[in-house]
Design brief:
single chain; about 450 residues; alpha/beta; three-stranded antiparallel sheet; 14 strands; about 40% helix; binds ligand P70
Length: about 450
């Protein structure tokens, strides 16, 4: 624990950017659920069975078998983490001038699409951009937006639809299977692939089990498989759903694309049987995948997020509705109505929460949205959010109570807040390293 006085110093040294705080100065760390979950006794036992051969490690085959069994994809390329897989698939499938529709952008995903010469187009349903809308499947793709784009640009300019389970920047919102089946039918009609960002697929499957008609008697594992089977390829950041500290993969059903990816991975990541991962980490991942689709685990995990969300809702704090699966997202525009978006309300709020209690959160608003690649202006996203992300199997309900109490204090003190100005802005993914000063 730190004192308020300490934290005043630390946040100035970190340029009001929670990414730049030292972890030792953080009390409860809700920056991300990425690589921060606790590994189980079985996963740690697996770590001891690492086969660190350069080529053909036994652990690779265990990981490959787990992916094929639970997710059903045919060919697997390990990568150091999710963005390694995004890099490879973008390089292979996107030509300059192409368009990539998706259910809301994700920072690293869109950047790799742009670096390959493509343009991302948001085709998520309108409800996803409205924090007040209680529509249950805000991750859904708007079929009209998608079909209009295909008609306008031509199917040959659209190498794939990028479909995420769940949608991170919308607030951890799920897609329904009914919607995915419609997207599948439409993309089949035009001969377009679906590439699945399956980073939080088990959490999405759980929401389908709870809220989509016809799924309450299906297991999370069965629903996960049904989702994957409706898609052609996948990128995975195993650091989330799959309960490991590091790792990812690219999964493919088409042999030709696999062959190219297997060749490219040796340039950017490592040999095709380790792709930047240690043998022991591939073993922990094989076990983590099995645990991630366990119904009791996923109910407890999402249940804890719901517990925090309901508590904040009951206290009248403006949050994104419905409550998502990996965190609770605070609506910074409603929290600080006095701040225009260029005063960085969400960045300000995440700094204020840290100052109050040492709880670390993440900005997911105008700083994360970056600049328009043609005009150079800020992108002004409708959603200006602070994410309180819950690591899996780490914190107790008592921690959730402390977090809620702190947010209530910060809310009570909201009136005097003046916002921030950005004094240093890196070229790529600026939110990670940008520096701010108090206004
Ligand atoms: C987070 C992390 C990573 C992520 C993701 C989705 C839906 C791909 C990735 C990339 C880490 C992060 C990344 C960028 C900005 C802030 C935080 N999300 N797709 O905290 O995977 O990190 O393994 O390369 O959520 O949400 P990786």
């Amino acid at each position: 624990m730190t004192s308020r006085e300490d934290r005043e110093r630390y946040i100035v040294e970190a340029g009001y950017n929670t990414f730049l705080l030292k972890s030792k100065d953080v009390y409860i760390d809700l920056l991300t659920d990425s690589g921060t979950s606790a590994m189980s006794d079985r996963q740690w036992a697996g770590i001891m069975m690492g086969d660190e051969a350069y080529a053909g490690s036994e652990n690779f085959y265990h990981m490959e078998a787990a992916i094929q069994k639970y997710y059903g994809y045919k060919h697997i390329i390990p990568t150091h983490q999710g963005r390694g897989a995004e890099h490879l698939i973008s390089k292979i499938l996107i030509k300059p001038g192409d368009f990539i529709p998706g259910n809301m952008y994700f920072t690293t995903t869109r950047l790799h699409q742009e670096l390959a010469g493509g343009t991302f187009v948001d085709v998520i349903v309108d409800e996803a951009h409205d924090p007040e809308s209680t529509f249950q499947f805000k991750g859904n793709i708007d079929l009209n937006k998608l079909e209009n784009l295909i008609k306008e640009k031509g199917a040959d300019k659209i190498p794939y639809v990028c479909m995420a389970t769940t949608v991170n920047l919308a607030g951890g919102q799920p897609i329904s299977l009914a919607n995915l089946r419609d997207v599948r039918a439409l993309t089949h009609k035009y001969g377009i692939r679906i590439v699945h960002d399956m980073t939080r697929v088990a959490e999405n499957a759980f929401m389908i089990q709870q809220f989509e008609e016809g799924y309450k008697n299906k297991s999370t594992a069965e629903i996960v498989r049904e989702i994957c089977d409706l898609t052609d390829a996948a990128t995975m950041s195993s650091k989330k759903d799959a309960l490991v500290s590091i790792g990812g993969f690219l999964a493919l059903n088409e042999y030709d694309v696999y062959e190219e990816a297997r060749n490219l991975v040796v340039v950017y990541e490592g040999l095709h049987t380790y792709g930047g991962m240690a043998g022991r980490d591939m073993e922990a991942l094989a076990i983590g995948i099995t645990e991630s689709v366990n119904d009791d685990h996923i109910r407890a995990r999402v249940g804890q997020v719901m517990y925090l969300g309901r508590k904040l809702e009951a206290a009248g704090i403006p949050i994104v509705k419905p409550i998502g699966t990996h965190g609770v997202f605070l609506d910074a525009k409603k929290f600080y109505p006095q701040l225009t978006q260029d005063k960085f309300p969400a960045q300000t709020l995440s700094a204020e929460i840290y100052l109050d209690s040492g709880v670390r959160s993440m900005e997911r608003g105008i700083v994360s949205a970056g600049r328009n690649k043609i005009t150079g202006d800020h992108n002004y996203p409708n959603l200006e959010l602070v994410r309180l992300t819950i690591p899996r199997r780490v914190y107790t309900q008592a921690h959730m109570d402390v977090i809620a109490e702190s947010i209530e204090y910060v809310y009570a003190d909201r009136e005097d807040i003046k916002g921030l100005k950005m004094t240093y802005e890196p070229k790529y993914l600026r939110f990670f390293q940008a520096i701010f000063e108090k206004l």
